[in-house]
Automatic annotation (TrEMBL):
Organism phylogeny: Eukaryota, Fungi, Dikarya, Basidiomycota, Agaricomycotina
Protein name: Major facilitator superfamily (MFS) profile domain-containing protein
Chief place of localization: membrane
Keyword Membrane among record annotations: yes
TM annotation in the entry: 108-125, 137-156, 162-185, 197-218, 230-253, 300-321, 333-356, 363-382, 394-415, 427-447, 459-480
Keyword field: Membrane, Transmembrane, Transmembrane helix, Transport
Length: 504
């Protein structure tokens, strides 16, 4: 009887197997450093017993070593995948002539779309090397690789070569976002995940918005050394990306169990607070059995659709905002310069929503719904108001851009707060970000060239998808409440942990 009780305790805590584990039930009697998982959910304060000064010093140390480098990597990632639109807007005629874009039907759309095919297909496989080689080497060398690809785009001779390099760009960039989201989630408890993801994502987006201004400045190098301005955009961003990748290889921190910049007391503190929060500080191997289980978890696919919807709006603005601003009535030069302010505005809704989502009970869904309403309102404003109301239409761009980008981090943050086990965290990050690639494909197709500059198909699809997200949020709230009540009665064990409850 004692053996059965011990087995049930370990199973309910969500401790997953290593290669020596039993294959019949998918779980394993792990003793090493997992014996304290029974404290999950029993601490109102997960930092109880530690000096507050020590806690703040340790968390600040982790923040400074982890988030800024990941943010810089994602900043160059966003710039490298989206500056195609800025290069085109800066020297449209030169680019179309050099690459023979005029001669085919929607060749630009095809080039935009091809990035997302390997990006989607390689999201989950790309995470297999993260644990094996370590975040520093895996993500750092991926950044260097796509930087070299970006650099090569400045020397292509036709549209086919550019499309081929876009495929390679998507393959290497597939490693970053799910890897970064997984890495962040292993360092922080649930009450801090959304704010860290928001800082990681939002700071990158803000600087990438300012990158539009930088791209405009680089394009003024037009004619230097016989190269068009659009070529210099790719060349300069490629050099910057390689430099960021080198910094990542040298300084990016790894997973908590491999951290070398913390002393033993600090490492024990990080381990303890994660176990107190959700009991999955110990890494577990991915198996086919667990992979199949995760694939059948419906809530992960709902979170993936939420992320897809936000990514669709984000990519459509990244790729087509210059044309949208031109349709409002701004000149080509002014359209480039006016791309930056909506990304600066992103700081307000993103950090406010993330802070409320983490710190206020039962606000995760409400924050996502609120930003969906901002997207719907803003999209209708910039697309449907009369052309004479130039200022109001531009305000709509602020609302739409703030809403879609805020929900990118909120949706993956809610997902990470709703699961346990490190293998499931890696799988969830990869699945959700892969659906972000689907959103990129949808934006490439929905914002079709023949619909320019108003893009009615893309506009109304954006509105419709965000209405569906609102409905999904309502459904998840009802389901999570129902499951939490069942767990309180002891009729169900959530995420293999008796004390685990869903956050809504």
């Amino acid at each position: 009887m004692a053996e059965k009780n011990e087995e049930r305790q370990i199973e309910s805590a969500g401790v997953y197997p290593t290669t020596s584990g039993r294959s019949d039930d998918g779980y394993n009697d792990i003793k090493k450093k997992g014996s304290d998982v029974d404290v999950i959910g029993k601490y109102d304060d997960i930092d109880e017993g530690y000096d507050p000064v020590f806690v703040k010093k340790t968390i600040r140390k982790v923040d400074l070593r982890l988030i800024p480098i990941l943010s810089a990597m994602y900043f160059v990632s966003l710039c490298d995948r989206s500056n195609l639109g800025q290069a085109r807007a800066a020297n449209k005629e030169a680019m179309q002539t050099d690459l023979k874009l005029k001669e085919g039907n929607n060749r630009y759309g095809m080039i935009t779309l091809m990035f997302f095919i390997p990006y989607i297909l390689l999201e989950i496989p790309s995470q297999l090397g993260l644990r094996r080689f370590g975040a520093r080497w895996w993500l750092g060398f991926a950044c260097i690789a796509w930087g070299l690809v970006e650099l090569g785009m400045g020397f292509v001779n036709n549209w086919k070569e550019l499309m081929g390099l876009r495929v390679m760009l998507g393959a290497f960039e597939a490693c970053l976002y799910p890897g970064a989201a997984y890495l962040i989630s292993t360092w922080y408890p649930r009450k801090q995940i959304a704010t860290r993801l928001a800082f990681f994502y939002t700071s990158s987006m803000v600087f990438s918005g300012l990158g539009a201004t930088l791209s405009f400045g680089i394009s003024q190098m037009h004619g230097m050394h016989g190269k068009s301005g659009w070529r210099w955009i790719f060349i300069m961003y490629g050099i910057i990306t390689v430099a960021v990748g080198v910094v990542a290889v040298l300084f990016l921190v790894d997973f908590p169990d491999r951290a070398t910049f913390l002393n033993e007391e600090q490492k024990d503190f990080i381990h303890t607070r994660i176990n107190r929060d959700r009991g999955d500080a110990v890494a577990d191997n991915m198996t086919l059995h667990k992979f199949a289980q995760y694939m059948m978890d419906l809530k992960l696919w709902i979170f993936a659709f939420m992320f897809c919807t936000s990514a669709m709006g984000m990519y459509s603005l990244a790729y087509f905002l210059p044309r949208i601003l031109a349709s409002i009535g701004f000149s080509n030069v002014l359209s480039q310069l006016l791309m930056a302010p909506p990304y600066l505005w992103l700081i307000v809704p993103s950090f406010t929503s993330a802070w409320i989502s983490d710190r206020v009970k039962n606000m995760r869904a409400i924050m996502i719904v609120a930003n969906c309403l901002c997207v719907i309102t803003g999209t209708l404003m910039y697309s449907q108001l009369p052309t004479s109301q130039k200022a109001a239409r531009y305000v709509g761009v602020f609302l739409a851009n703030g809403g879609v980008n805020t929900n990118v981090s909120l949706s993956i943050g809610w997902a990470q707060a709703s699961i346990r086990a490190q293998s499931k965290r890696g799988f969830t990050s990869a699945l959700i970000v892969a659906w972000g690639g689907v959103g990129g494909i949808i934006s490439s197709v929905a914002f079709y060239e023949k619909d320019a500059p108003g893009y009615p198909t893309g506009v109304w699809l954006t509105v419709a998808m965000h209405i569906v997200v609102i409905a999904f949020c309502a459904g998840l709230v009802l389901w999570f409440k129902f499951q939490n009540r069942r767990a309180d009665r002891g009729t169900v064990v959530l995420e293999h942990a008796e004390d685990f409850r869903y956050q809504i």
